[in-house]
Automatic annotation (TrEMBL):
Pfam families: Solute_trans_a (PF03619)
Subcellular localization: Membrane
Alphabetized UniProt keyword annotations: Membrane, Transmembrane, Transmembrane helix
Record-annotated membrane-spanning stretches: 87-107, 114-131, 151-170, 244-269, 281-306, 318-338
Biological source species: Nannochloropsis gaditana
Region ranges (Disordered): 1-40
Protein name, as recorded: Transmembrane protein
Top-level taxon in the UniProt lineage: Eukaryota
Length: 470
């Protein structure tokens, strides 16, 4: 019965034998014990291929065993993968012994509080970084979908960068201003990559527009926004995706540039340059701008997820969104909270550490601890095993590991960014309209040609009259 349905699906949709093979493989059910849906993904769109009656009829049939001869399972670097796992266990064993020695020295020698913070932060960084590097390594070993996996890897790099940067800022407070600025810039980069991951899974900008056009042709031509803008509607004819794109990209731009402006202002405050009251007001204004921009970016991401949650369900976007939001946005609110506590006098100076130094130190220590938990969440949320569900088995083609390290470099960011900005702000349409010849211009040219014709006629008549007189 499944084969009959697949034949009808081929006649209706014009799929090839390769697509049929992918459908038959997916109809057998997903592997790794994952029961998300008995569905197949074609160009990022998930379509059901078994109705409820067919499931009841096929329920007694035994599913075929999981195939292990596919490129996803028979990795060309399987030996390296096994060695990576063993080295990870050895590293954590040594790390546990190292952590016990550090704690014993802290307790026995009665170290000062800032030394305790350094040691505790180092322990959690030692837990988070290897865990995330192992996930990145597994993606490179099973690199079968470069278009999506490069975004996975870029997001996974967030944990090592955050953890190491926060510990360095905790340990070397003289350079914390520049280190924290680099972390804030990477926050914007993570948001961009997460949005592009969802967008490219759906087939890119054109694929999303095709989905919206299909929904528009099927019924409602507008999208009702979520609270508190539920009274407004965005058109499905490109307006929705363009405004969501602008909503995300504006935060990336604002966060990136204001991070460097904040760095400059904080540097002036620390060295007594300029009027202190004016600089503090500038910092407060920057925080308000970042907060408003951040809230709008989150709203656009939620609206995007709400509109395409059915098409995105194969990659479990909800938990991906939660994890990214926890890392990127929780760090901002933590920093804002501790800075406010320092200004209100709730934090006291310690040795040669000022109240702001204490606030930054607590913030960086918490990030080191949080990264250990986030690294565990990333192992399940951004797992390389997602590719087995996303990519059809007959289309899995393993790529060399070095290709992954080249693809994660941000060469494509500039071109993607330019394309999304042009589409989002409507600049492409404006340029096309500008290049077109307006009617007034054509009329002016026509009138000029007519004038020249009349003038030539008068010249000919004058010549004829002159010849007759002569």
């Amino acid at each position: 019965m499944i084969e009959a349905y697949q034949g009808a699906f081929m006649e209706e949709d014009g799929t090839t034998e390769d697509s049929t093979a992918g459908l038959r493989s997916n109809a057998a059910g997903p592997t790794f014990g994952n029961s998300r849906s008995n569905s197949t993904t074609k160009h990022g769109l998930t379509c059901n291929i078994i109705c409820e009656n067919e499931e009841e009829e096929e329920g007694d049939e035994q599913l075929p065993p999981r195939r292990t001869d596919l490129p996803f399972h028979s990795s060309h670097d399987e030996y390296v993968v096994k060695c990576s796992r063993r080295l990870l266990y050895v590293f954590y064993g040594c790390g546990t012994i190292f952590a016990a020695i550090i704690l014993w020295q802290i307790i026995s020698q009665h170290k000062q509080r800032h030394v305790i913070a350094w040691s505790v932060g180092a322990i959690f960084v030692g837990i988070a970084v290897p865990f995330s590097l192992h996930d990145i390594h597994m993606h490179t070993m099973h690199y079968v979908n470069p278009k999506l996996q490069k975004y996975y890897i870029r997001i996974l790099w967030m944990v090592p960068i955050y953890a190491i940067e926060s510990w360095l800022a905790l340990r070397f407070r003289g350079q914390k201003l520049f280190l924290e600025t680099a972390r804030e810039a990477y926050e914007a980069y993570v948001i961009y990559n997460f949005y592009m991951l969802l967008l490219h899974y759906l087939g890119g900008g054109q694929g999303v527009r095709d989905i919206l056009k299909a929904k528009s042709d099927a019924g409602d031509k507008t999208v009702r926004l979520l609270f508190p803008f539920c009274c407004f509607r965005w058109k499905r004819s490109g307006q929705f995706i363009n405004r969501c794109t602008v909503g995300v990209i504006q935060y990336v731009i604002i966060r990136f540039f204001l991070a460097f402006i904040t760095c400059l202002v904080e540097y002036m405050l620390d060295h007594g340059l300029g009027q202190r009251e004016a600089l503090e007001q500038t910092v407060f204004a920057i925080l308000i701008i970042i907060n408003v921009s951040q809230v709008w970016a989150v709203y656009c991401l939620v609206a995007f997820y709400h509109e395409f949650h059915y098409e995105l369900r194969a990659i479990n976007p909800f938990w991906k969104f939660v994890v990214v939001k926890m890392v990127v946005f929780l760090s901002f609110w933590q920093g804002l909270l501790f800075s406010g506590m320092a200004r209100e006098g709730m934090l006291r100076p310690y040795m040669d550490y000022s109240k702001q130094d204490i606030a930054s130190g607590i913030q960086n220590l918490l990030i080191c601890i949080e990264m250990a938990a986030i690294s565990v969440a990333h192992k399940y949320v951004f797992s390389y095993k997602d590719m087995e569900i996303i990519v059809e088995p007959n289309k899995m083609k393993p790529h060399p590991s070095w290709a992954a390290w080249i693809d994660i470099l941000p060469w494509d960011v500039i071109s993607d960014f330019r394309e999304q900005v042009f589409n989002g702000f409507g600049l492409r349409r404006k340029m096309q309209k500008k290049n077109r010849s307006p009617k007034s211009g054509v009329g002016a040219v026509t009138s000029e040609v007519s004038t020249l014709t009349v003038m030539n006629t008068h010249v000919v008549e004058n010549r004829s009259t002159l010849a007759a007189v002569v």
